[in-house]
Amino acid sequence: MRAKITYLVTALVLVVYFVLVGSRGVLLIRHGTPLTIVFGVAVLVLPVIGVWFLWKNTQFVQRANRLAAELEAEGGLPVDELVRTPSGRVDRASADAVFARRRAETEDHPDDWRCWFRLAVAYHDARDTPRARKAMQRAIALHAGRPVPDQG
After folding, report:
1. Which of 21, 51, 60, 150 has the fewest CB atoms found within 10 Å of its own CB?
2. In the 8-state DSSP scheme, what is residue 91?
3. For this UniProt entry, which segments traverse the membrane (predicted)?
4. What would be the CATH architecture of the domain defined by 82-142?
5. Residue-range domain boundaries for the chain
């Protein structure tokens, strides 16, 4: 729940920022000189890119949460079996051991979105966020029945 609230607050702050930047872009365009019009258009591009990025990330999070809920209903969510340091961080060797099992499971069942979901969690626990995101994207695509490109 804390993560959802943090995401919501961050998204709202970004939306306010996009509105403020966008209003500055409009003011520059209204000024009417060729230079301010060019700058105004350039400033308006930033909030458009930001809104697109925020939208895509929100869709990703919603889809991943739906998969987690479905997997939880099936009883297939990965169990937290990781060893933690006294400070609460995941022990690297423990994360690597779980990751090796999840990778082998995924190699045995490459078309099962559940395996890819669990692999994404293992990547996350091993602090490999880019690969965790790619694995989760693959799980989402497999669940939706969309074609999935080979990962290299």
Report:
1. 150
2. P
3. 7-29, 35-55
4. Alpha Horseshoe (1.25)
5. 1-76, 82-142
3-state helix/strand/coil string of 26-82: HHHHHHCCHHHHHHHHHHHHHHHHHHHHHHHHHHHHHHHHHHHHHHHHHCCCCCCCC
pTM: 0.79
- How do residues 81-116 score in pLDDT, each as one tens digit? 888 888 888 888 888 888 899 999 999 999 999 999
List, in sequence order, the alpha helices (H) in 75-149: 92-108, 113-125, 129-144
The DSSP secondary structure of 5-28, one letter per residue, reads HHHHHHHHHHHHHHHHHHHHHHHH
Q: 11-68, pLDDT tens digit by residue? A: 999 999 999 999 999 999 999 999 999 999 999 999 999 999 999 999 999 999 999 9
**Dmax (CA) of the chain:** 63
Half-sphere exposure of 106 (CA within 13 A, CB side): 23
